[in-house]
């Protein structure tokens, strides 16, 4: 969230218009951050669990060419839905708007080619597929996006991109870094490098497909029409309370799954297949659920 706020504070100025894809809790968070900094968040509501139609974004930009950016997710973590960032980047490359992607849960679990796909700003964090405790975030910034940074008048201090860039040139950081987490991340990256980045994504895909087939086999439904490799959102029968189910799985089997957020609270559970996981983990979770 801090990195999301940093992107907003550094790219835009009060009064700027930004288009926000809202298909879950974290799309809503983009809008809340933009509004907190005095920007006008133009919503594109697509429904929780629904796939993004990039053409709708293009149509919005055509009607409102003053929009400075599109703020979206690679994977909307509250639903597990994957968005077509490649197609979206192609559309926006022909406009003046920059593409800002929250890839916090999706990085490494899903392909993301920032330059090839025209992603101007990509945000990631240490605690998901990078397999490191929370506390680190990472941001890539294109030349197109740097032009916005140079003209931003929003207040910032700790999150100042220009200050970070100047210190990076000296192999330093503006403030005291979380050295212990950096060392932990180094070891995680070594594991990813050893396995191979493409193989890591394929492993996530394999676990995701297995999870969804198992869920369907026990007569439960999958939320949405574009599920990702990150997690599987399981729609529960109306007579089952998701929070009570989670408590039961934890107490009886020692298995933890995430619950629904916002309007989906108590209605779904979210099974992760993210990070250092293999088939045995999925088998245990599905057995406990059944």
From TrEMBL:
Q: Do the record's keywords include Ligase? A: no
Question: What does the record list as GO biological process?
Answer: glycine biosynthetic process, by transamination of glyoxylate
Q: Which keywords does UniProt give here?
A: Pyridoxal phosphate
Cofactor (UniProt): pyridoxal 5'-phosphate
What Pfam families does the entry give? Aminotran_5
Task: Write down what this protein is called.
Answer: Aminotransferase class V domain-containing protein
* One MF annotation (Gene Ontology) recorded for this entry: L-serine-pyruvate transaminase activity
| Annotated PANTHER family | ALANINE--GLYOXYLATE AMINOTRANSFERASE, AMINOTRANSFERASE CLASS V
Organism, as annotated: marine sediment metagenome
Mention any one GO cellular component term assigned to this protein in its UniProt record.
peroxisome
Classification via InterPro entries: Aminotrans_V_dom, Aminotrans_V_PyrdxlP_BS, PyrdxlP-dep_Trfase, PyrdxlP-dep_Trfase_major, PyrdxlP-dep_Trfase_small
Domain Aminotransferase class V, residue spans: 3-262
């Amino acid at each position: 969230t801090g990195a999301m706020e940093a992107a907003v504070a550094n790219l835009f100025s009060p009064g700027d218009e930004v288009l926000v894809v809202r298909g879950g809790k974290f799309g809503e968070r983009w809008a809340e951050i933009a509004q907190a900094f005095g920007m006008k968040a133009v919503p594109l509501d697509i429904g929780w669990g629904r796939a993004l139609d990039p053409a709708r974004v293009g149509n919005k930009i055509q009607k409102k060419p003053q929009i400075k950016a599109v703020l979206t997710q690679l994977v909307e973590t509250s639903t597990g839905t994957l968005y077509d960032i490649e197609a979206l980047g192609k559309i926006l490359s022909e406009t003046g708007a920059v593409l800002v992607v929250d890839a916090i849960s999706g990085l490494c679990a899903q392909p993301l080619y920032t330059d090839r796909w025209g992603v101007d700003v990509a945000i990631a964090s240490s605690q998901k597929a990078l397999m490191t405790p929370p506390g680190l975030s990472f941001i890539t910034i294109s030349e197109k996006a740097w032009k916005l940074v140079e003209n931003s008048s929003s207040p910032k201090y700790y999150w100042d991109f220009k200050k970070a860039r100047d210190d990076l040139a000296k192999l330093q950081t503006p403030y005291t870094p979380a050295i212990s987490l950096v060392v932990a991340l180094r070891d995680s990256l070594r594991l990813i490098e050893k396995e191979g980045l493409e193989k890591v994504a394929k492993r996530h895909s394999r676990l995701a497909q297995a999870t969804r087939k198992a869920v369907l086999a026990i007569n439960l439904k999958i939320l949405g029409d574009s599920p990702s490799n990150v997690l599987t959102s399981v729609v529960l029968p109306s007579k089952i309370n998701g929070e009570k189910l989670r408590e039961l799985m934890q107490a009886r089997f020692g298995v933890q799954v995430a619950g629904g957020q916002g309007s989906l609270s108590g209605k779904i559970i979210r099974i992760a297949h993210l990070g250092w996981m293999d088939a045995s983990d999925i088998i245990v979770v599905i057995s406990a659920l059944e």
